[in-house]
Fold this protein.
Amino acid sequence: MQTSSDRHEYPSHWEADVVLRDGGTARIRPITVDDAERLVSFYEQVSDESKYYRFFAPYPRLSAKDVHRFTHHDFVDRVGLAATVGGEFIATVRYDRIGADGMPATAPSDEAEVAFLVQDAHQGRGVASALLEHIGAVARERGIRRFAAEVLPANTKMIKVFMDAGYTQKRSFEDGVVRLEFDLEPTDRSMAVQYAREQRAEGRSVERLLKPGSVAVVGVGRSPGGVGRSILDNIREAGFTGRLYAVNKAFTDKELDGIPAHRSVRDIEGPVDLAVVAVPAEHVPAVVTECGEHGVQGLVVISAGYAESGPEGRERQRELVRHARAYGMRIIGPNAFGVINTNPDVRLNASLANETPRPGRIGLFAQSGAIGIALLSRLHRRGGGVTGVTGVSTFVSSGNRADVSGNDVLQYWYDDPDTDVVLMYLESIGNPRKFTRLARRTAAAKPLVVVQGAGSAPQGHAVRATRLPHATVSALLRQAGVIRVNTITELVDTGLLLARQPLPRGPRVAILGNSESLGMLTYDACLSEGLRPLPPLDLTTAASAKDFHAALSRALADDTCDAVVVTAIPAVGEGAAGDAALAEALRSAAERVPGKPVLVVHVELGGLAEALSAATSTAPQAATPSASHPFRALDRLAAKDPEEIPKAGSRLIPAYPAAERAVRALGEAVKYAQWRREAADPGKVPESIDAAIDEKGAARLIDGLLARGQGLTLGADETCDLLGKYGIPVHRALAAPTPDDAAAAARTLGYPVALKATAPHLRHRADLGGVRLDLADEGQLRHAYAELTELFGAPEELRPVVQEMAPRGVDTVVRAVIDPAAGAVLSFGLAGAASQLLGDTAHRLIPVTDREAATLVRSIRTAPLLFGWRGSAPVDTAALEELLLRVSRLVDDHPEVVAVTLEPVVVAPHGLSVLGASVRLAPPPARDDLGPRTLPAY
């Protein structure tokens, strides 16, 4: 436990684990009075040159006064942070608040002097950059807005750390010293730098786990069987190119089936990059200590008995992560299935999969071991296409994902040259905001296909609470470019298409084949998926391979189609030879026009003949490749070497056993291609809306309102005032507790007016009769008032209001909410049953651009009602899009606005009217994506 250094309590929330540039981890924490010995030991290991750069003079050792000064902080005006590995300091940073004269000062002075010292053995690992992010966040928290640093010109490494940080800076040179001053307010450039460093560090940390030069399996049994022994055998049989060791404390021999055997990781001579841990949970801590002391870079923990087993196991899991990170190690697991890398330079199968998948260009991630097995099996069975095989580049099963998560693996796959397509099965998303950001960046470079569980998170998964429905989260993932599918079958189907075929340029689909019925099924499936199929071309059952080649060549050359689906039934009596000829015909035709995707739908009839043969004979039947799987025979004949990794961009035509599956995969590819095109020009927030926005006035109003309490729903007048500062006028509604009050309100507003009941059970329920419109005079108003009270009860129950009439149009709803997990979300739909009963609501992450606002309006199923459906007048969608931009800007500028509802918004042919509005204010949820890089806390 840390001791407070001076007058303030120890700020434990400043403690954080970070991933460094080389993929290792370090712990960042405040320096306290208990760290005197650590500080002295650290300083003794720093070179004389580094000491000179820090103090501008020879400084061989720290005096007692120095040690006291560098370990006693008030955590406000004087703060020191240390980066530690194994509990020992590897770097320090310190700031001291100064005044305009450069002398020590206190608040309200907002400038501080900052200085670093990094142990020479750890320079170049990005430690100083990580410390700068964290000390900057601490300084902002304490009211410091600017750092100053004096650096010797020869200390180019430290100058580069400051210059590369992305902050707004001022540089000067005086008395032989470079003086740097920079604001600590995050900028677009500083955030871009931070995200780029995060990607490199986290990607490298996963790379160290997937490309080890040496592996030790801990918990290997002396006899065949058991988890540890099975993993050891799988690594050996896959042909792992590095050094492999077996570890078991009961070993007496120095070898196990030719593999070096040791009683402890400590006994291994030479480095160990990866340890696969398969011992009972109670023995794992001792193994982690051995690995940490030996310098192991990462762990794959197969052992179970952690958070999936209950509260006691959850605490055991937290301690496992803390223990491993203390030594700079990352963990896959616990309760993991393992990892696979098919790269010929690695050939690692450190998993429970008995068979290594075919090499290929699909990256596969699964939290569940059972689903991981199923995915590997399906890819192995379905990996064949009509012209070759598609396999896996890397596979990660994260188990409880206590440390390494899907976000980390995405960081690795983003620039992995061996991976073209990413497939992920996610039972939960621990950090939706970060996943969405990473997904958007990854999807802009390569397809990302995701199956997400809709239920509660499994035991053992740390998941941030979200108030958003599952459908909303799915919509936000699609906005980020994620190809969201519902089953693992669709995951594999879509992945196989995207792995080897180009993206379609549009939704137009040509269909050809030797079965008219199969062609019509494909045609209907295209219509169901929103594609635009051309009339199917029936080549008849007499079609030869040559006929298929000619028809496919014509279809691909046709400028009116963007993709081709070939339907085929096996020809009677041709067997494998005919199948191979067809495969070659399709391949050669597709290669001539490489810019359009080609898919094959085939019906396998050979299985029926095999079943009939088995029913009439008791003798064992040798199944031939062409008998049981006609197109699998094509795979084997067309693929010269199934174990060879296909080159990036090579054309393999995927085959599907049903038209619906092929077309569904094609539909997802069409939508993804459209997203890629739109993502290239995401739009902007028009400057024209700035004229009517009073951001500072809104901030003053919000501050005054929040001074009343931590969270409140604004009253009608306050809501109108706040929305008005962002150019969003709200039609006034005057309370009418009596008929006389209603008449007085109408005289104030002017006729015609509307009379509405605003009781919770009647609000926004025009279908219940609680609204009377177009009341032209006082007589009609009093008559309507009497009707409402007779139907629904006393005025105090109805809460009637009078409101001026708005032009007729389409009633819509606009909402914005800040979700603690996903961030700020803008939603749009039509008012009434369309959004409430059918869930026809579209969502976008805030801030939205003009292009995203236009897409939001058009993405609901009932959007045709806005654009002149069945002869009705089109409404002013431009005004609606501007309203969406203004609401987005309000919530983005003021995160204290945690919820906004505009209902109804009546959109007329010219203009719109906001008839009802509510706003809720509260202290905003913490935004860890704007702070320094950290790993999830344990």
User: Anything to note?
Assistant: Residues 448 and 482 are 5 Å apart (CA to CA). The two ends are 15 Å apart (CA to CA).
